[in-house]
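Why does residue order matter? Because the sequence determines the fold. Keep that principle in mind as you read this record.
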Amino acid sequence: MIRPWSALHWVTMALVYRALWTAAQYSSDQCSWRGSGLSHELHRRDVEQVYLRCSQGSLEWLYPTGAIIVNLRPNTEPSSADMADLHVCIKPQHHSQGSHLYLEHTGDLRLLMAESDQPQRKIRCFNLTDGALFVEAVHQADISRRITAFQYELVSGRGPGAHLYPHLHPGFVTCEPCSDEEVLLAVCVSDFAGSGVFQGESSITGEHSQAQLTLNRLFHQKNGLFVGGGARVRRWTGSVNVPTKCGVPHGGDEYLLTGSVHFGEAWLGCAPRYKDFLTLYVRARRAGTNPCHIDAD
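Structure:
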């Protein structure tokens, strides 16, 4: 049974030891942090404050002892409305061990991910306003092979198609189609946008399935998700994750395909039939209300 040390005591100790930490213990690029528990092994109840100011990055804590509080914020100051919809998503490395991950708020701790859960590399998300990430070392006689390591991302819960990302609100994924305004915005701001057909599912888990896509148009993409067939072949292939409860369309119809990239994987967002999108886009262009221009014809 996991029995964390008193949260109030941890927070009190954090204030006491704050003066001991120097700039060398913070990440130089403000996106990622790498530290070692050996620097204060004799003070196993020390609490280290870590401040990260990026939309994504990583943390690696070698030989964890004591605890660290990870304060995550975007690199620009968001409005109060944007802050309320901003989430932190954590994905541990397969070798991560030596610590439990908690959400800390006003001295209270809520377990986010136990040490035994981390090798499974499951993603956990929480609202940024709910508190800071509290990483507590598991007491071990031998810490020489213990490394806590994970990636993090800041994810908005308000973008077009965000309701289809299952980790933001586990168990509450909705498969409702995007509104006309969301579809037009998705073409402009999504991590990828194009048109093509679903070629079937390659794998299915309890939370999502992976659909294979062939694209006839590629308006833009991030991280080279879709691979082209060559200079003379205007066709791209790749895969996207889709919530299992929403299913993958069949029948060979052409769809507008937009979505987001999380931890290197594509997630499907707004995806109406392409002929319906084309009608919507032409109407918005004539009215001068389309947010951006694409070669949709």
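The first strand starts at residue 33 and ends at 36.
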